[in-house]
Amino acid sequence: MTTTPEQVPDEQHSPDEREKAPGTVETPALAVRNLRKTFGSGAEAVHAVDDVSLDVESGTVVGVLGPNGAGKTTLIKSILGLVIPSEGQVSVGGVDVYDDPGAAYARVGAMLEGARNVYWKLTVRENLEFFAAVGGESPEALRERHDALLEQLSLTEKAETPVNDLSRGQKQKVSLACALARDVEVAFLDEPTLGLDVESSVELRREIRRLADQEDMTIVLSSHDMDVVQDVCDRVVIMRDGQVIADDAVSDLIDVFRTFTYRVIVGTDTDSGPPTEESPLNDAIRMVLTEEFGVEEFETRGERRAFEITLGEPRRFYELMDTLRDADLVVHEVASIDPDLESVFLELTNDENESPLADEGVRSTDATRQAATGGENE
Amino acid sequence: MSTSPASADTQGSGNYRTLLWALAKKRALLMYRYPVNTLSGLAITFLFFGMIFFGGQALSEQALTDSLGGIIVGYFLWTMAMTAFSGLAWSVTRESQWGTLEQLYMSPFGYGRVMLGHISVRIVESFGWGAVTLAFMLALTGESIHVPLGTVVVLTVLAIAPAIGLGFCFGGLALLYKRVENVFNILQFVFLGLIAAPSVEVFWVRLLPISQGSYLLSIAMQEGLRLWELPGTELALLVGTAIVYFGLGYGAFQLMGTRARKRGLMGHY
Question: Which of A39, A336, B92, B94 is in the most buried spot, having the most CB atoms within 10 Å?
């Protein structure tokens, strides 16, 4: 992702930044406390989920990321009580999932097996009605809701079609629709866009975002698709070896890994003739840029020169500008090269990388930033 | 959804009857939508009885005639027990292998109650198949038996309750071990043996699943006795075995469900 320094995206907001009525203490839509799940025992014990705690506010979309085997699915299944955890507590809207599963399940919808979540021999509408009834609601009372759901997922024309006759993307949408067939407060979506074409994926993302923004639904989704997570999630939880190694707003997490790397194109004020000894980026300025700013490579672009520079911190940007001005160079273009969620994810989950968070076990924005900057922001 | 104000008002508007209706509707839709599958099941039931009847006639006509009433009642009970057992055990297996099991598990009614609803629907269905099969058998053999409806329904439900218990038990095994279909196939022969077991001659046989029900149903349908005309101790034994086997099966199902959840085996992956 390349943007100019002024165009740093800041569209996502931490749940903490959401406005709350003064004096009110909101019960989190989802609260997970010290959740652990260990399979096996002794030397063969596998800690699939290792002391995970989360609070998720209403209307938040949380993405759970992690490499294969990181514990994402076990975490979600443990939250839902489909896997009995070794330790810990989970509550949905203040209702304990393990003590009162019936009341908790009344508030929850889940899409855990993609298109295999539903009965393919039944029609789309029959599935919606069946799962509404299984969820304790009268299908007749939810007719309008189902119509709206079908409309929003572009399935109205397929309402009376057996699921088996639908495309993969449509089946996936039916699965999502069934998870939302009744009025739920929290929805768990495991790989909701897996196998979808671009158009279907975009539609589904839009719907997930709309549910959170307009219906105040809390959504926990796991995905391997970084674009999906970056696109729809307010917050991302990154897991490795059963532990949460990062838990932040997406934009804040990216900020932590921002290296202030820029692509700079410079020239002279005349830009005429081929590069000569007097041309921009002669040996002297090359040396300054190489030695002081660590620039390794210069690219010739006609009369201009381009180079990539990593400054590490924002104030050095002004030093760079001063240096270039002192050398009588004209800055024609500066583009910020921002990390995306994928590079952040790889940085965090790669064992060999010494990420700024490696020793900290990231839990929050502040902890993340502190770890990354050595407490400079304090 | 955009209809949330309306749906919020109707939160929890359904009840267990709604669930039962949904389970029944789903079953009926599947039977209606796949008529070949439905009818082939019935045809196999008829064919199997035809083989027993005509095979028996070829081997020993007199012996068959003497025991034809018992065979008809026994076969009627067997089809019902098999429908109830396989309806439950196969259902858990298929749902577990497919991915819908977790959805049912997350029902606010609880998975056990969902499966009880499911089996209630299957019992009603099995009475339908049983009636059609009985009519076919009587038409084919020219035999006549008594069908005191209330008595037959009560005795049959109590007789197949242990089969349902076994269905729960093997359903639980399917949650843990996923592929146990071969055991299901063996069970149909076990059921035949239990129905035909000599419960009159050997008392303890009546303590086995289904055997006591088979014995009392046979008396009621062949001799035309009503429920209140049956010996109280025999009825008590039937109720006792029904409760014990059903309870044990349901308990085992819950236990194995908990174990499956502890091991992370619930569901497809």
Answer: B92
